[in-house]
């Protein structure tokens, strides 16, 4: 969650927003010089960003199950997903945020932000850019959650709202087409980009030539007051470009593509972001920076407010707590073991030589399944015999294990034979006698996500080794990501070399790398749907007893019908507004 007090710290001219801004828009109700009203409304948009918290929607896929029987995504996956019971619903949240952004856009020019006219104009420009960007981001999440083929056969998005709705307005609005919504998102992102700096930074005294020309003739002091490092963490031009890449990937994907080839557009949008950070060099080559950003204690401790480590393009403010560990550590570490990775996901990690475990060249031994595997397996998943926690406690997940960490031993035990490791700080102590917290943050966008988006789109547009107008290929991206993980270093990644001759083989490899690199970060649920992939793969587990490894073929079935590749329009909205067309298959 973006914190108002942090965002406004250091700016003498802005007053911290009032706790509540329940005011009418008529002139008698608010004073134009009072900046608290529109800026408080703008902050509401930040607070509504869906990626502010972890969804763990992996539980509704073949990547994870939960031992929490009340988990909403578990209920979705087991046949209880309906138009009026939708844990993935973003309709109310995002439309409320859009309403706030529309109000803010109508009020910004009425406000005296600071006394100096030139600086006041800069403030208004920045805040407009933020509002346009946040409106686009909220629309993207609406499309991801609710766009789809309507019962009328059209590929539909959501109603497009560009001004505040009042009590006298017509609320019975039809859904715009999917492509119209994408066009509006891009227009808003362009408006944000032209108003915002690439990043917030202070320009040194005497370096006025570094002020972007689009802001006119202003002094360094005036520029820094409106666009200086104080505002790091707010929406920027770099973020606008990244959301444009996310939107382009969604639009090009099989479930939403209306028959036109949009892959080149998606590749170029992702490349535009990567090229700001050195192209291929945007992927941190250091495994610690790129893979374990969530547990790099020194790096996290050294982050100033709003600053980003190399892997992170945009994040929320850091917090200091132990909530993720409390939910997901094994029982012997005083955790609740909530998110249990599946055997399906474990099997997706290749061997150290780069070959999938089902390849004859892999050397995979089903009686010793965790040896010589992709190092990311043990980084992200707690397997039997691995250690965890402040005391490096060995975790026994066997079926006949002596502790509550054992398979299905108690309510908080694993259901699959695995516990979550990724995202957790192993230096958190949950022991009630010596409990401790640690710092953490939640990324909104990582460079690896954008790199994988480029690889997916470039492969479809140009083939595995084609570059289009760029200087690197899908193959180059995947090679860099796999080498960072330590894959195929002794054999020149022979499997990747064999895959680069086929778009279809490379497509499967890219999708698998995306599954591994972004696991438990809220992508798999949406990726399977936009790919038109199988949603009904049962969640598997591993039972180990007396040294014998036996795959559990169905820890949980996945009950999804074909129309569920698209989320529904909320049933309550369909009842209220006759102009809304429901997605086909939903009641």
From TrEMBL:
Pfam families: SusD-like_3, SusD_RagB
Keywords: Cell outer membrane, Membrane, Signal
Localisation per UniProt entry: Cell outer membrane
RagB/SusD domain span: 332-586
Domain SusD-like N-terminal: 55-204
UniProt xrefs under Gene3D superfamilies: 1.25.40.390
GO terms under cellular component: cell outer membrane
InterPro entries in UniProt: SusD-like_N (IPR033985), SusD_RagB_dom (IPR012944), TPR-like_helical_dom_sf (IPR011990)
Membership in a protein family: Belongs to the SusD family.
Protein name per Swiss-Prot or TrEMBL: Carbohydrate-binding protein
């Amino acid at each position: 969650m973006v914190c108002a007090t942090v965002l406004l710290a250091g700016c003498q001219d802005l007053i911290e927003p009032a706790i509540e801004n329940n005011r009418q828009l008529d002139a008698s109700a608010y004073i134009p010089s009072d900046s608290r009203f529109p800026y408080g409304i703008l902050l509401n948009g930040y607070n509504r960003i869906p990626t502010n918290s972890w969804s763990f929607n992996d539980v509704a896929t073949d990547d994870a199950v939960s031992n929490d029987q009340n988990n909403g995504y578990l209920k979705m996956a087991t046949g209880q997903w309906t138009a009026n019971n939708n844990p993935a619903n973003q309709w109310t949240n995002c439309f409320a945020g859009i309403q706030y952004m529309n109000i803010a856009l109508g009020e910004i020019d009425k406000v005296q932000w600071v006394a100096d006219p030139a600086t006041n104009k800069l403030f208004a420009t920045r805040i407009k850019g933020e509002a346009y960007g946040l409106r686009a981001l909220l629309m993207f999440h609406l499309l991801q959650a609710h766009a789809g083929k309507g019962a009328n056969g059209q590929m539909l998005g959501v109603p497009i709202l560009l001004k505040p709705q009042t009590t006298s307005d017509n609320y019975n609005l039809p859904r715009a087409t999917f492509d119209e919504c994408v066009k509006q998102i891009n227009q808003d992102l362009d408006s944000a980009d032209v108003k915002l700096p690439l990043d917030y930074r202070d320009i040194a005294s005497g370096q006025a030539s570094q002020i972007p020309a689009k802001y006119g003739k202003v002094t360094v002091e005036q520029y820094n007051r409106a666009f200086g490092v104080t505002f790091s963490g707010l929406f920027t031009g770099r973020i606008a470009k990244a959301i444009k890449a996310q939107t382009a990937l969604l639009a090009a994907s099989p479930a939403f593509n209306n028959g036109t080839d949009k892959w080149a557009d998606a590749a170029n949008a992702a490349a535009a972001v990567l090229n700001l950070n050195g192209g291929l060099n945007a992927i941190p080559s250091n495994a610690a920076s790129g893979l374990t950003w969530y547990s790099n204690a020194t790096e996290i401790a050294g982050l100033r407010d709003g600053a980003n480590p190399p892997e992170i393009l945009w994040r929320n403010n850091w917090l200091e707590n132990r909530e993720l560990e409390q939910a997901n550590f094994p029982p012997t570490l005083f955790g609740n073991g909530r998110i249990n990775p599946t055997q399906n996901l474990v099997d997706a990690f290749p061997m150290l030589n780069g070959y999938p475990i089902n390849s004859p060249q892999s050397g995979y031994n089903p009686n010793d399944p965790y040896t010589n595997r992709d190092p990311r397996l043990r980084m992200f998943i707690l397997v039997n015999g691995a250690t965890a926690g402040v005391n490096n406690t060995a975790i026994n997940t066997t079926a006949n294990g002596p502790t509550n960490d054992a398979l299905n031993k108690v309510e908080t035990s694993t259901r699959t034979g695995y516990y979550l490791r990724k995202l957790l700080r192993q230096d958190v102590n949950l022991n009630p006698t010596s409990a401790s917290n640690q710092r953490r943050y939640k990324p909104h966008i990582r460079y690896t996500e954008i790199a994988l988006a480029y690889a997916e789109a470039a492969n479809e547009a140009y083939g595995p080794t084609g570059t289009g107008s760029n200087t690197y290929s899908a193959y180059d991206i995947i090679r860099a990501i796999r080498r960072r993980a330590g894959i195929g270093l002794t054999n020149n990644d022979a499997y990747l070399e064999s895959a680069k001759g086929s778009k279809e083989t490379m497509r499967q490899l890219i999708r698998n790398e995306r599954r591994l690199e972004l696991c438990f970060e809220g992508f798999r649920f949406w990726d399977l749907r936009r790919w038109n992939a199988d949603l009904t793969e049962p969640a598997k587990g591993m039972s180990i007893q007396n040294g014998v490894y036996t795959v559990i073929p169905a820890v949980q079935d996945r009950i999804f019908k074909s129309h569920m590749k698209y989320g529904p329009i909320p049933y309550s909205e369909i009842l209220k507004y006759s102009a809304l067309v429901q997605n086909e298959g939903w009641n």
